[in-house]
């Protein structure tokens, strides 16, 4: 397994579906990539648990692992639940509202393979806002990188 992708969801059913479909689109750009898609629901009260439980990937490259948590302990704890199931050489941690439909995973994996001193990386993210910027006043315009 090349890559484990962990998506943590909380009350974001429609966004989670878009995220999962976009990830498959990106992964399809690298035909030799094998990956597992681990989706952790943090005790959502919307349609997310059912969507995550019944989701079926369209890619044969993908192994799908749904995790339905009975308690919302936050993004970090949700990722830890996913990491316990992860078997990939590399791990990608995502929020359920990130649409990664043009990611070159082959390039990222090649970079990690040829730079063993690097412990983590991120990619450039473009922030697309459907709402007025004034409604986002408490959010940073750029993602935070955690390594």
Question: Would you write up a description of this structure?
Answer:
By secondary structure, the chain is of the alpha/beta class. It has a single domain, classed as Spore Coat Polysaccharide Biosynthesis Protein SpsA, Chain A (Alpha-Beta Complex). It is built from 4 helices and 4 strands. The protein has helices spanning 13-27, 48-54, 75-85, 105-114; strands spanning 3-9, 35-42, 62-69, 90-95. Helix 2 links the parallel strand 2 (35-42) and strand 3 (62-69). Helix 1 packs parallel to helix 2 (48-54). The radius of gyration is 15 Å and the shape is globular.
Radius of gyration: 15 Å
Instruction: Identify the CATH class.
Output: Alpha Beta
Q: Helical element count?
A: 4
Which homologous superfamily in CATH is the superfamily?
Spore Coat Polysaccharide Biosynthesis Protein SpsA, Chain A
Roughly what is the average pLDDT, rounded to an integer? 85
Bin the strand percentage: 15-25%
Helicity, in percent? 25-40%
Major pleated sheet: 4 strands, parallel
Provide the succession of SSEs: EHEHEHEH
Structural class: alpha/beta
CATH topology: Spore Coat Polysaccharide Biosynthesis Protein SpsA, Chain A
User: What is the general shape?
Assistant: globular
Q: Strand order within the widest sheet?
A: 3-2-1-4
- Determine the N-to-C terminus distance: 22 Å
Oligomer: single chain
Q: Return residue spans where pLDDT drops below 50 for at least 5 consecutive residues.
A: 132-136, 138-147
Q: Would you count the extended β strands for me?
A: 4
Number of domains: 1
């Amino acid at each position: 397994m090349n890559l484990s992708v962990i998506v943590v969801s909380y009350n974001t059913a429609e966004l989670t579906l878009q995220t999962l479909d976009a990830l498959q689109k990106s992964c399809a750009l690298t035909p030799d990539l094998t990956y597992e898609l681990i989706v952790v629901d943090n005790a959502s009260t919307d349609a997310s648990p059912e969507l995550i439980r019944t989701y079926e990937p369209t890619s044969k490259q993908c192994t799908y692992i749904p995790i339905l948590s009975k308690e919302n302990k936050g993004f970090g704890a949700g990722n830890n639940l996913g990491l316990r199931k992860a078997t990939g050489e590399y791990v990608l941690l995502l929020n359920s509202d990130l649409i990664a439909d043009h990611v070159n995973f082959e390039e990222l994996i090649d970079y990690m393979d040829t730079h063993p001193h690097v412990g983590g990386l991120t990619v450039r993210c473009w922030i697309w806002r459907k709402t007025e910027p004034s409604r986002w006043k408490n959010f940073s315009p750029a993602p935070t990188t955690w390594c």
